[in-house]
Design goal:
The chain starts with a strand and ends with a helix. It contains 18 helices and 16 strands. Residues 329-333 have low confidence and may be disordered. It has helices spanning 24-37, 51-61, 87-94, 108-114, 119-134, 147-153, 155-167, 184-197, 213-222, 244-254, 262-265, 268-278, 300-308, 335-344, 354-369, 377-387, 437-450, 501-525, and strands at 5-8, 41-45, 69-75, 99-105, 139-145, 172-177, 201-206, 227-230, 296-297, 326-327, 396-405, 414-423, 426-434, 460-468, 479-486, 491-498. The chain has three domains: 5-260, TIM Barrel; 351-389 and 460-527, Double Stranded RNA Binding Domain, CATH 3.30.160.340; 395-452, 2-Layer Sandwich (Double Stranded RNA Binding Domain), CATH 3.30.160. It is globular, with a radius of gyration of 26 Å.
Length: 527
Amino acid sequence: MRTIELYDTTLRDGAQGEDVSFTVEDKVRIAHKLDELGVHYIEGGWPGSNPRDIEFFKKIKRSSLAQARVTAFGSTRRPEKSAEDDPNLQGLLSAETEAVAIFGKSWDMHVREALGSTLDENLRMVGDSVKYLKKRLAEVLFDAEHFFDGYKRNPEYALKVVKEAESAGADWIVLCDTNGGSLPSEIKAIFEAVKKHCGARLAIHTHNDSELAVANAIAAVEAGAEQVQGTINGYGERCGNANLVSLIPNIKLKLGMDCVSGEQMARLKDVSSFVDELANKAHWSHQPYVGKSAFAHKGGVHVNAIRKNRETYEHVEPEAVGNRRRILISDLSGRSAILYKAEEYGIDLDGEDPKLKKILETLKTSENLGFQYEGAEASFELLMRDALGEKEIFFDFIGYRVIVEKRREDETPISEATVKIRVNGVPEVTAAEGTGPVDALDKAIRKALGKFYPELEDVNLCDYKVRILDEKKGTGAKIRVLVESGDHHSKWGTVGVSENIIEASWQALIDSIQYKLNSFSKAKERP
């Protein structure tokens, strides 16, 4: 079976999309999700372009990935510079990744007008840069930027560029439809032409400006591409990149080629939702394969037929991509997902258990209120354990108060939180100051509980996100708060929903503490 390697650029090209921004911690968490998904290459960013990417490469070096190769991205050397003295190439080496990807111009118009150089100098830039990096690194990928547009205008020169990179030792030649304006028929014909002249392994990188990024990538695979590049959910500049969430099942299920295992592909929906949540974006309900509506059936004829044979209105099995069939207005919807999560959390739950219905009802009520559990797995586990009577109660809530005071225009506001709780009948009142009301509340909670539960000392608030659920209501809108917490061993996400940002934050923070204490208690019970 032919194998297609997957190259993910969500953390670099995807992060360049409008309204997409990841923290360093977000990028590390996403990298681990991509590794679990079976992605072969994870492009982490441009190490010379901003402090965030530099910090990411430092942190990811301390992480253990199962198979993915972290890749740094940059450009060829500058015109009239030596490779040894080029700061961009030095920045790539400083990232200390297993592989690097560099892009160079393959469209003669870009060389003259955008780069302001000559065609011969551009060839030298490509050759020098690849050769310099290849002497120092195990793997070098060369991105032939604007290749298809360049080939249409000047095929001879576009081929010279890729041949130069090949001669210099590039392991991969990546043909890029950078403007996203090519048609599948053009991609296939040009790819086949290049394959006749180039002996290096070929990859495809497509953009979605004509709504054809996935189709163009598939056309390239059919023409011989051995690697496909894209982003989760199609994030990227302008109209985005090829969507790996669609490409993976198309390659594996439609073309019959290998790229990830069946078990890994079943994580697609989870990964898609996870990345959306960390990007603070609503998950697209109608996204192919993984959207909430992708396998939802409502029309009477459809429902009747699907109950007899799923193939009547489903082109693949939803479980293959981690999704599920939904018969709208049916109370059976969601059972399989809950049973799957129960098994994941080590909860003994039978499909016939009446408690399953209680969990389902609780879940539906919560979702109605605006709760969402992608990226907040800890809150969902607590919800399940609470419905099953397995959630331990470590303290009782009495009350809290948060004060934000600003005395002068040029003075930083002061935030103070007071928390009142009861542990084993013992009341505790604690106050703390913070850089903001949520920080003060977090510190007060952990300060109040610290004397009773010292294991909370190593819990930290890693990330905090707020999302408005109904923008039409303005400042009175209901909001969702997503909190990421962690200790020395793991990280977990929790969620809170309210019209009041402090209350939503309180819910998420309390869930975080409850999850830690429940997990610690269960760990002690294990032999």
